[in-house]
Amino acid sequence: MKLQPIYIFLAISVVGLLFAWANTPKISTYEIVAKESQNSNDDYDKMMDVLTHPRCMNCHPSDHIPKQGDDSHPHYFGMARGEDDHGFEATNCNTCHQSENNLNSGVPGAPHWALAPASMAWEGLTRAEIAERLLDKSTNGNRSHKELVEHMTEDDLVLWAWEPGIHANGEQRTLPPVSKEDFKKAVENWFANGAVIPSK
Amino acid sequence: MEISLTVNGVLKTVAVTDVNTPLLWIVRDTLGLKGTKFGCGKAACGACTLHVDGEAVRSCSFPVKFAEGKEVTTIEGLGNRDNPHPVQQAWIAEIVPQCGYCQPGFMMATAALLNKVPNPTDEDIDKNIINVCRCGTYYRMRKAIHKAADLQLNRESNESKEL
């Protein structure tokens, strides 16, 4: 008796399916790995979404000139870093900026208003380069991971990003794309998980 | 609420309904010192510049609550006809003002600069004197700032000789 080709094909297919089913790992194994990996990158991405937003980046310039607005244009009136990150001798940050936002004039303000030190210049850097500078004690103000977490989650000037007040035209300044609470959690988680820079 | 501050050497206590009222309006409307001018209301033009504890501030954007217990100096307190400040002397000598509206702010900014940089270069002036003058008196102001620096240095030199 001669077997029909169709029966041979069906038999091979059934054997193949049984083999594939037997060697398929349990789905739960993949779920755990994928979840951990995704969370780690999520924390990094959320943190970087904030750090690269104009509310943060405008005061981390690479050319010593503070920036303004969502278009990050150079600060009006020729203001610049000066000797101590506070502008010039007689015309400095506090000539106009106080310790809180001014809702009459639209001038923003927060405690210790100043440019970030030149070593913390992030403007124009990639996310990975920013993260490297953030973690490097020679460029982060000699801060440990613990001190960085405190700085990024408790400092009034950092948290000003979520209460930036109004522009001179009365319109609300835009907020970072991540909520303050989510940013704090992301920073804490990222450092708790080893502060791994994903591209590395 | 009452706010106490020293204005041109005299202790003043003012009643305010809103502690965020700009110091400019307290100085002009409550205390009647009209030398300090309102220009833009956005801390941009500098016409409202006065000193708080010796530092130049834009009083249109300076809540009066932050002046509590502080020393405020306005153009009226910088000097007077009998004893003008070197900046005022220089401004007269160089005939700086045109319409004059912005000049008190420039003079207060200049006085603050000379306290920090007694002999400023043109670069120092460009960096620190960033007020706005619609009449364009910048050229005469630059000459007056250099003259004021000379006058102030001479005055300090003479005072030290007298001691």
Explain the overall architecture.
The complex is a heterodimer of chains A (200) and B (163). With 200 residues, chain A is an all-alpha fold. Chain A is built from eight helices and two strands, in the order αααββααααα. Chain A has one domain (35-192). Chain A has helices at 5-22, 27-51, 54-57, 93-96, 127-135, 145-154, 156-159, 180-192, and strands at 67-68, 73-74. A two-stranded antiparallel sheet of chain A has the order 1-2. In chain A, helix 2 crosses helix 8 (180-192) and helix 6 runs antiparallel to helix 8 (180-192). The longest helix of chain A has 25 residues, at 27-51. The radius of gyration of chain A is 26 Å and the shape is elongated. A five-stranded mixed sheet of chain B has the order 2-1-5-3-4, sandwiched between helices. By secondary structure, chain B is of the alpha+beta class. The relative contact order of chain B is 0.15. Chain B contains six helices and five strands; from the N terminus they run E-E-H-E-E-E-H-H-H-H-H. Chain B is globular and about 45 Å long. Chain B has helices at residues 23-30, 75-78, 86-93, 103-116, 122-128, 138-162, and strands at residues 2-7, 10-15, 49-52, 55-58, 71-73. Helix content of chain B is 40%, strand content 14%. Classes of the chains: A mainly alpha (200), B alpha+beta (163). Chain A binds chain B through residues 76-80, 82, 88-91, 94-96, 98-99, 102-107, 168, and chain B through 20, 22, 41-44, 49, 55-58, 60-63, 66, 109, 112-113, 115-117, 124, 126-130.
Supply the key terms.
heterodimer, A: 200 residues, mainly alpha, two-stranded antiparallel sheet, 2% strand, B: 163 residues, alpha+beta, Ubiquitin-like (UB roll), DNA polymerase, domain 1, 2 domains, 5-stranded mixed beta sheet, 6 helices, 14% strand
Which chain pair has the greatest contact?
A-B, 22 and 28 residues
Distance between the termini of chain A: 64 Å
Approximate shape of chain B: globular
Average pLDDT confidence of chain B is 97
CATH class of the largest domain in chain B: Alpha Beta
| Count of strand segments of chain B | 5
Please report which band the strand proportion of chain B falls in: under 5%, 5-15%, 15-25%, 25-35%, 35-45% or over 45%: 5-15%
What is the CATH homology-level superfamily of the largest domain in chain B?
A: Beta-grasp domain
Helix-strand topology string of chain A: HHHEEHHHHH
Based on secondary structure, the structural category of chain A is mainly alpha
Task: Give me the CATH fold name of the largest domain in chain B.
Answer: Ubiquitin-like (UB roll)
